[in-house]
Structures are given as C-alpha cells and as structure tokens.
Amino acid sequence: MGRTASGDPASLKHVAALAGVSVKTVSNVVNGYVHVTDTTRSRVQRAIDELHYRPNLAARQLRQGRSDVIALALPELDLPYFAELARSVIKCAEEKGWTVLIDQTDGLVEREQLVLDGIRGRLIDGLIFSPIALGAADLERRRDTTPLVLLGERVFDGPADHVAIDNVAAARAATAHLVGLGRRRIAAIGAQPLPTSQTAHLRLQGYQEALAEAGLPVRPEYVVPVDRYHRGDGAAAMRRLLDLPEPPDAVFCFNDLMALGAMREAYERGVPVPHDVAIVGWDDIEEGRYSIPTLTTVCPDKQRIASLAVDFLAARLGDGSEPPHEVTAPFTLAVRESTVGRPGR
Q: Which helix (H) or strand (E) holds 254?
C-alpha cells in the first residue's frame, strides 16, 4: 500500500482530496462502477497512481462475504493432462477476477475427504473437484455448503454440477480408427480392476464395443492392466505385449503418457511405429505433438471443460437454485504419425 507525504498509508480520503472528488466517487472508480465520467475516472486514477494507493481487499471481501478465491482439487499435477486443465481453469477464473488455489489429492480417500469437508473454512468461495477415491454416497453425506462442481468420471448424477466427456464414445472412436486402418490385433493398455477406476472401465467398454462392431474378438492377453497412468507403466505393458507369441499390430493406450512409454519400448525393441504397430493415446498433451512419431490421440476439449466448470461455479455463487447440471464436453480425434505415418514416407 502507498503512503502519503506524512508517511501514513494512502486511503480513499487521501485519493479523494488529491483528485478533488468525494470519497464515494473514488470508491465507485475503485470498484469499477460504470456511472463515472471518463474525465473524473482519469483524474481519480492519476491520484491513485501518484499515491500508490492499494484497496484494502480483505476489508472489501469481508463486506461482500466473498474471497474471490476458488479451489481446484486434482489427483496428480505431474500428469500433464491435469496440469494443462489447471491452466485452462486459471485462465477462465481470471476473467471473473478470481484467484485459483490448487490442491493435489493423489487420489487418496483421506485427502479427497479433507477437500470435501471444507478444510479451508471461509478461505474459498467455491470448489472444482476431480475425485477418484470418493463416490456419490460420499458426496451425498457432505455437510460443507461451499459451492461445488465435479470433473471426471467417478460420479454421475450426483448432488453437484458435473462436467465430463463421453469416455465410451471417445474410446470407441479411437479403436474404430485403428480398425479402419486395417489393424486386426488391437490391444488396450490401461485397464484397472478396482471398482473406483471408473475412467478405465468406460474406456475399456468403448474399446470392446468397437471390436464387437468390427466382428473382432476381445483377446484377454491383449488387455493389459496397469497400476498408474505413467510412462513407465506404458513401457512395461508394451514389453508384455511384444513378448506374446502373436504381438498386436495396434495398441490403444488410455492416456498419452502410457502411449509415449509404449512407443519408447517399441523403439527399443526395434518395432517400427506405425509400420508394425500403430499406437493411439488419450489427452492430447503437448508432449505428444512433438514426439517422434507424433502421437495420434483423443483430444478432450480442456478449454471447454474448464469454462463450463467455472461458469457453473459462478452460477452457484449467484442464484444457485437450479438442479445440478450433468454436461458432456466435446472431444475430437487428432490423427497423427503414430497411426498413419508421415506423409510422403
């Protein structure tokens, strides 16, 4: 905060005296009210700049009952998808004058429960939350009244607004793309047997439906489970597939990091991609656009997911009386070199 010539912190009164206007006029300018002439606004702004006046945000927020801070709780920030999604949420929140507090839950029950129970008290106005461990029953028992928007596939038709993508349709499209290229031995990396692994279940369902539609069998040895969705998990799964007596000629990976790990393993084994094995990922992370070969991938519209979530939260902070919304954001399939090769090569 700036100070006057006497050394006292600059206040609305000091700005008003220097600008030759009322304290109310200065307050109107500071709070962005439109009913102030351009001339007066400029005069007040010059006084603010000269005195280095900074509004007392804490006092203003106390009066308004708002902090202008929201929280975004995600499972893993070292997964690029979540990092890129967080960036989109921050940009959308900035447009509303909000600051975003980011929390990493690691998908642990106790961490997610802390988020849900409102451990931050009155620090935040709203919460955007992507749960993995908690389900609809946990959300129904929630006592904290902080407005909530859900992301991901763990909870559908729950007690809060929810933004997701159609995982079954997207997985079906990715697998159908491989079928359309003439691939017939199509594997899947990313299955997870736990009942909480809803994302994996939905993507596996889409994969299986696409094979059934093409009249192809689901071969159990081609469905490789993983513990986590990291590069090393993809490489280990690909190693297992390439060791089969009849290795697959295509692999659908349930995220881009596993696909990148799978491509590296294929390279190490001297198996050319896509000539001998075509690979599809999921997430459209930036790394996949610069890998060699570039990665074909399912592209969730992260910007749309973020804008929907922030807009729902803003609506809840306003009237907030409507029933919870269940919205599906769009996706596309970016076809790149890992399935179709490089043009002219």
A: none
